[in-house]
User: Fold this.
Amino acid sequence: MRTTMKIRKYGIAFLLILLATNVSAQVSFERILNAEDEPENWLTYNGGYKSQRYSKLDQITPENVSDLKLQWTLQNQVFGAWQSNPIVADGIMYITERPNSVMAVDAITGRVFWKYRHVPAENALVCCGANNRGVAILDDKVFMGTLDARLVALDRITGSPVWDVEVGDVNQAYSVTMAPLVVKDKVIVGVGGGEFGIRGYVAAYDADTGEEAWKTYTIPGPGEPNHDSWEGDDWEHGGAPVWITGSFDPELNLTYWGVGNPGPDWNAGQRPGDNLYSDSVIALDADSGELKWYFQFTPNDAYDYDSVQVPVLADIVWRGTPSKVMMWANRNGYFYVLDRVTGKFLEGKPYVTVNWSSGLDENGRPIPTPQDEGMPTFPGNQGGTNWYPPSFSPRTGLFYFSAWQDYATIYRAEESEYEPGRAFLGGGFSVLAPAPGAPTIGIGRTNPINNWTNEVGFASLKAMDPQTGEEVWSYDQFDVSDSGMLTTASDLLFTGGREGYFHAVDARSGDLLWNVNLGGQIVMAPVTYSVDGVQYVSVISGHALSTFALPN
Amino acid sequence: MEIPSLRISRLPSLALCAVFSFCAQQTVAQEVGDHQYTSEAVETGSRVYTQQCALCHGPQGDLVDGIDLSIGQFRNAQSDSDLVGVISGGAAEGRMPAFNLRAEEMNGIIAFIRAGFDPEGVAVRIGDPARGKALFEGKGECADCHRVRGVGPRTAPDLSNIGAIRTPASLQRNLLDPATALLPINRPVRLVTRNEETIVGRRLNEDTYTVQIIDSQERLRSLKKSDLVSYEISDQPSKQPTDMTSDEVADVVGYLLSLRGIE
Assistant:
């Protein structure tokens, strides 16, 4: 049926009446601080400063989840893995598209209000795809990092640029792919470029002006503590990028960041020492950027075990003591529980096959067991897990994430020389193949899926108990998965995988409750929000963002 | 939790060694014997090429129009003996001069070309495609299962463009040691449904919940794993290592390499 409403054209201009106060549209720092208390919105990359990706919404339940109906789909206009995470505020969704576009979308209909295109400099260089993982919002602005290492602020209502500043030198292959983190009046980002010999850092910018407030290198310079974990001038091009959004504890006034691999990636012999703070979590003062503590997961890493996972924070009773903990399933194959006040190691156990190390000592330092030349190292180059966001449910007390099971890489180390703006890798690697010439696992899927074989690895959605450091249940998939997690107050766990299925799983038992084949890789986490009393769940699969809700 | 409550068994299981490609290659190298050039020959050829050929053909073998030696693209030559003829007799009205090489040098040049310009590569002898076609359809019994350009059964993969998507070394390995060369997706499967139907076929695709196959009656079937009571994937191909002679294998490889899609 056609709507028959007539649109009349009046010959007179309407008087646009501006209401004096427009407070409701503002997303203040206080609102973000208490994001968990307004679950109708998804205000930060990880759904709140604790980065739990847990929502108090409970309209969709294990009983009715199979009634979910598609409400709308937004098609991406650019090829490549769509790893962007939506932000939802007061019925409006903000989502980025490759390489650096931002869209404001009606969260009920999926119709686009505006689209802003930033065209990155032609010489922008990233190792692993022109990814952008989303925006941050504060007050009336939206913030996006760019492939050419800039930070852009847009007006949230019009999409017009407000300021645009340099974060790093694009000629030296600095880039920003993460969604920024807003804390108080500052926008904080880290830089990518760990495959190009950068020296990583985290930097904060004034949200109103874009002026740099602080900048903390992830590799200490001469005279700074732990500079001696490097030899000679290795520190100048030692990598240690920060390419995933961090977390924030307002009581401690600390921001937490996962730091990436040292460079060159695969030749650890070329950079003797622990190479701090590569493959570490660092705690930085939110106001000054001062380093308060660090914990290194993989000293002198030879396997590209970036520790860029999301720092997941929880206040729980841990083995009888009320504790401020941080949970971390690391790319190196170990699951950790840390004290986030001091950085002290509490627990750590392997969650997949690990042979690069035989275990962790009492301080959490791995005991290295390098494999012979030509022999496979477990987990492989993409890690036991990677950047895909996990979830922690305060209701179940469990930590959920995507693991790659039975996956290995054969590494080859080579001497390599740093040249600005060029790959600085220190060798190469190959992945186990079940037969010569058989397709194997990699960052993205370019081969037809039918070449897959579970002999080179498969996905395992794992539920971990931080009390024991051990797995409570797992849900395996035939193909590997780069999907993140979402949990809700009705004990639902939403996730996906490369096969293109969107899953709803019982967060307590691991039983599959519902799924739908969306036909494209799910390489980001779902989010949930509500508008006018209706709970929505959105997920990106392939080149489409699909949003589901229960029928009226 | 298991992949939807169904055990997937692999019969029979390969030794751990075969899972690792580098390991498998070593095994093949030992088994193929006189079907390949030696690594010494490849190395000799690498030296001779640099001294005698690289000036015109270039370090990558692609500087002469219409020719890319490293991927086996020539103007007229196909077999190894064709190449020997061109090198020793000259070609293209004298633009390619005749070279007077010692036997081991000539052997080395061919080996280096057949190894894809990789001094550490495996070189494969390539024989006469016409003789290879006859063997493919006759003694080799290849055409009993494989289809080429619209002729033959669909039980095994269609080989109409196999020469464009496989290296000579891979084709030779498929003939001599099919168990290590068979791609996982081509492994034979045997399914039994809840309705007690037994389906034998070749896997085309698979995910966590479903499997797609072509069955022995050449039907495309998609099955839910929850409807199956057993699902077996064999690590062993349905064919045995060939009993053809080394010359015959070279001829069949020559024929397969000539299959580059529909004409």
In short: DSSP finds one helix and 37 strands in chain A. The first strand of chain A starts at residue 54 and ends at 55.
